[in-house]
Write a structure and sequence with these properties.
heterodimer; A: mainly alpha; 2 domains; 0% strand; globular; B: 6-stranded mixed β-sheet; binds adenosine-5'-triphosphate; binds magnesium ion
């Protein structure tokens, strides 16, 4: 009896592991097909433009708000948490480094994952279950080229730009708290921000953002493209897209930080 | 897959005249998991012929069309288009074949991000063979052919009734003047008069284009009106092929039951009361 239960357990674990590798393999194939189709004509410029606006322009408010408050809270925490740092120099530096290296890319990534990843999964999922993706194929249009390539490229292009804007707004948030709440000297604060500013911090943040943009759009498209089973399947695809993209963003954030700063 | 012997004919007699069929299915098998849907479908469609497939709900009629279109991969068997085995084609050749086929999906499958006329003109706009204005003109003309007027052109598919969607799907399927047209239940969900209009339309477009047509239907009136030949799919096989006249005279109990629409006969529906 006991050994039977044990075998059942092994069976379950084995299944989970196999499913995990199967899913990883499918995602890998999906990613490589997307990359291959990037180099095939025709390129759907109009769809690409529409996605740039959808991902970039319409995500601006959420990214601006989250980075603004992140910058503000970092300024406040640095001041209150470390009394020895409570002057213009350290606060400006901590705000600058944490916003550009970590907060702006991660916040923007997670926000866009919620907004864009979900909507892409829902849109492609609906197209799948209503046979619109099949219809594309019968109309001699490659669904990867028509649907997925524009979305993934727009994600890779737009996220770094969003993060650059987020950097500026986050630093402004820190500045506002520094000047109006902590009553620092404005010009000293700005001077300090300027001296500590390093290209590497900005570039690393934007590189992370490009990777996050790829992850978000790829997982949104992947989950939608292979969804099945009607409305419920589409709902499942949407959830999976957001959850898996958020987890991968945090994992890759660590890996990229290691690559940029720890080596 | 290529080495498959040339068609085990089963119960279906096949005229082996010199003419190559436009479309030939040879022993096509398809299963989903444990569920076997197609169990060796053999079917020839001659050039310019209209073949109607009849058969119960869930017997795999739509799956058969999807196998031909390459949307599903058959597990076994060969499908030839103009004598070329579809499994041997490269992606570009496959696209070329698909561009010769028009398909009306059972669910219409209109693109809901595009307006009605953009749906109809989709292929024309993609191929950029004609200007946008010309594509729109053609789309409106095709819509008129299926009994829809100009006002519908700018509407989005979500705002159409089921029957109107079907007609837009039909207009999209014939917009590029394809050599082969597949209609998956063209008259389901239409009122009797519109059904007849669509039947006439199918007959006239097929004739006008000189197209080969493969139609799926449950509607026996429609089948009798448009078919040159009728084939019946049952338990994953084509069990009967014949003309409309032969259909009326056949002694095949399965076909007779289906045509009569009777619950009593050799075909048992799996219903648990
Ligand atoms: N993608 C799929 N995955 C799993 N099973 C499928 C899939 N497509 C079809 N099937 C199954 O194959 C069987 C045949 O489906 P199909 O859509 O071809 O039926 P049909 O003959 O067109 O019926 P109807 O006349 O109701 O449209 C059904 O039992 C269906 O559940
Ligand atoms: Mg069907």
């Amino acid at each position: 009896m006991k050994s039977e239960i044990r075998w059942q357990f092994v069976d379950k674990v084995g299944r989970v592991v196999l499913n995990f590798f199967a899913a990883a393999g499918r995602l890998g194939l999906f990613a490589s097909e997307t990359l291959i189709q990037c180099f095939h004509r025709p390129f759907y410029l109009k769809a690409f433009g529409a996605q740039l606006i959808e991902i970039g322009f319409y995500s601006l408010p959420v990214v601006a708000l989250t980075t603004l408050f992140s910058g503000m809270v970092i300024a406040l925490q640095t001041y209150t948490g470390f009394s020895s740092f409570s002057s213009e120099g350290p606060v400006a530096m901590v705000v600058l480094i944490s916003v550009t290296r970590e907060l702006a890319p991660v916040m923007a990534g997670l926000m866009v994952a919620g907004r864009i990843g979900a909507s892409m999964a829902a849109e492609l999922g609906t197209m799948r279950v209503t046979e619109q993706i099949d219809a594309l194929t019968t109309l001699s249009t490659n669904p990867f080229r028509y649907l997925i390539v524009p979305r993934v490229l727009a994600g890779i292009v737009m996220l770094p730009i969003l993060v650059l804007i987020g950097d500026i707004i986050g630093i402004c948030g820190g500045y506002l708290i520094g000047i109006y709440k902590l009553e620092f000297n404005a010009s000293t604060y700005l001077m300090n921000t300027w001296t500590y500013l390093q290209a590497m911090d900005i570039v690393s943040g934007m590189t992370k953002a490009a990777v996050f943009g790829f992850i978000i759009t790829l997982l949104g498209c992947y989950n939608g493209f292979y969804s099945k089973g009607g409305a419920q399947g589409v709902g499942q695809a949407t959830t999976n897209a957001v959850v898996s993209a958020s987890i991968l963003i945090l994992i890759f954030n660590y890996i990229l930080t290691e690559v940029f700063f720890a080596l | 897959m290529k080495l498959l012997p040339k068609a085990k004919h089963g119960m279906v007699s096949r005229k082996q005249s010199g003419e190559m069929p436009k479309l030939r299915l040879m022993g096509v098998y398809k299963a989903f998991g444990k569920k076997k849907v197609l169990n060796g479908v053999d079917l020839d469609v001659a050039k310019g012929e209209t073949l109607v497939i009849i058969g119960g709900s869930g017997t795999g009629k739509s799956v058969t069309l999807k196998c031909i279109l390459g949307l599903l991969q058959p597990d076994k068997g060969g499908i030839e288009f103009d004598g070329q085995n579809l499994a041997d084609l490269t992606q570009a050749e496959r696209d070329e074949v698909n561009s010769k086929i028009g398909m009306l999906f059972q669910s219409a499958a209109l693109f809901d991000s595009l307006s009605v006329w953009e749906n109809v003109a989709f292929s024309l706009l993609q191929n950029k063979t004609v200007s946008k204005a010309e594509a729109k003109r053609i789309a409106i003309q095709k819509l008129a052919q299926v009994g829809l007027n100009k006002d519908v052109a700018e509407v989005y598919p979500a705002d159409l009734s089921g029957g109107m969607k079907k007609r837009v799907g039909l207009a999209r399927a014939i917009a590029t003047n394809p050599e082969v047209i597949f209609f998956d239940e063209p008259t389901t969900g239409l009122d009797p008069i519109m059904s007849d209009v669509i039947n006439d339309l199918i007959v006239s477009t097929v004739k006008q284009l000189g197209a080969t047509a493969l139609t799926i239907t449950h509607d026996m009136n429609s089948a009798k009106k448009i078919a040159d030949k009728i084939a019946m799919l049952y338990e994953g096989k084509i069990i009967w092929v014949g003309t409309v006249k032969e259909l009326e005279k056949t002694k095949n109990p399965y076909v007779r039951q289906f045509v009569a629409g009777s619950a009593n006969g050799p075909i048992k529906m799996e219903v648990k009361v």
